[in-house]
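Figure 3 (text version): structure tokens given as input.
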């Protein structure tokens, strides 16, 4: 799906909501994902991010805003849209932007990140968001042709500590490097203040997932506060 430069620019300074339920959870249903995504758009989300091919398809029909799609396969190592095959399937499901693992780790299909990005660009109209875990990842992802870079894997790929909130230092480092592609803040943005801080650190746009769309975790926060 084609996302025009104007449509991408329209995300500047805005909120993107990630709507994901995990395997075995009560809300793990593509129709539910689409309803949650539509609710987020009603609340002002400028784009949504969803996991799974059926989720992308259902959500595309339910919202008018750009859809960032991904396909998680497993939960260790390279698992966010790990191969070109996964990425093309996400693009074919209708995602405007395909989010892929954007780390410097070896990919399961043996392709480089540059080959993967080139393959997505050659075979689809989707833009590519590289989910990175460090400044070095972001630099390599930009060199590889990624259209957007995100801090999604900061604290999960072993290169950065897992901060309790967003990794604002990493955001500031990537922003200061001036790579020339939109920098998406993602990961552990749990409050409106965190979202504001992420923009102030230099993010182009901010993705919030758990704190808006994962009721089991949010409930746990409240339960813990009462314990
Ligand atoms: C590391 C990983 O697998 N991140 C995933 C990527 O899509 C999701 O599980 C996160 O919910 C998403 O990145 C949004 O972050 P948060 O839920 O912290 O706002």
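Below: residues designed for each position.
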């Amino acid at each position: 799906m084609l996302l025009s430069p104007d449509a991408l620019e329209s995300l500047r300074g805005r909120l993107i909501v990630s709507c994901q339920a995990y395997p075995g959870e009560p809300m793990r249903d593509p129709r539910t994902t689409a309803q949650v995504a539509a609710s987020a758009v009603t609340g002002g989300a400028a784009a949504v991010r969803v996991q799974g091919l059926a989720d992308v398809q259902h959500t595309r029909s339910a919202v008018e805003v750009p859809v960032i799609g991904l396909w998680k396969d497993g939960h260790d190592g390279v698992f966010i849209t790990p191969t070109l095959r996964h990425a093309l399937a996400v693009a074919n499901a209708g995602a405007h932007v395909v989010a892929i693992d954007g780390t410097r780790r070896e990919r399961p299909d043996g392709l480089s990140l540059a080959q993967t990005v080139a393959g997505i660009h050659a075979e689809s109209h989707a833009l590519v968001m590289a989910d990175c875990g460090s400044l070095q990842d972001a630099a390599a992802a930009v060199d590889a042709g990624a259209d957007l870079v995100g801090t999604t894997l900061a604290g999960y790929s072993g290169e950065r500590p897992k901060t309790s909130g967003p990794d604002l230092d990493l955001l500031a480092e990537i922003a200061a490097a001036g790579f020339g592609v939109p920098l998406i803040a993602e990961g552990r943005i749990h409050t409106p203040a965190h979202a504001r801080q992420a923009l102030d650190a230099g993010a182009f746009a901010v993705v919030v997932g758990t704190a808006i769309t994962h009721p089991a975790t949010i409930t746990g926060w409240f339960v813990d506060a009462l314990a």
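The pocket of N-acetylmannosamine-6-phosphate is lined by residues 18, 20, 70, 80, 152-153, 156, 186-189, 207-211 (CB under 6 Å).
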